[in-house]
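Course assignment 3, question 2. Fill in each field.
Student: A.L.
Task: Predict the tertiary structure for the chain below.
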Amino acid sequence: MLRIGQVQLEAIRQHGEAAYPEECCGILVGCTTEGLNNVVDAVAAENTRSDSAHNRYQIAPQELIRIQQQARRRGLDIIGFYHSHPDHPAAWSKTDLEEAHWLGCSYVITRVVGNVADNRADAVRGRAMETNSFLLTGTSEEDKRLEPEPVEIAAGVGVG
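Answer field:
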């Protein structure tokens, strides 16, 4: 199960809206206790994918290491990743599974739909519509799979 604060969930959804029509991406920092991934921070990362950022994402290794080091100084670790699916369902794709390597981590996907009118008559942008989480299970690259993961939304800022 993934436990995430309303604040972190909203930050992920807003990141997806801001990045639209490209995919956003980020890292979930927290701790894992008895099979429960507790999110303390959702850290936005730059999508460094230059060839197809509208339907793929990549986090630079240097950024990943920096975020992991910062987390460890706080007694936390990387417990998952998030990204958006512009104009596609909040479900994992074949590419998402192929590029997921952190067993036991949560992979959160937010569906962002475009051409949604804002409160102002002249504003049109992407809007986060649905967010789902998937747990990467298995014992190796050969048998890994993404399974639907229940999400508990906590009212607090950090739930670790």
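Instructor remarks: Residues 1 and 50 are 33 Å apart (CA to CA). The beta strands are 2-5, 25-33, 36-45, 77-86, 106-117, 124-137, 145-149, 151-154.
Grade: pending
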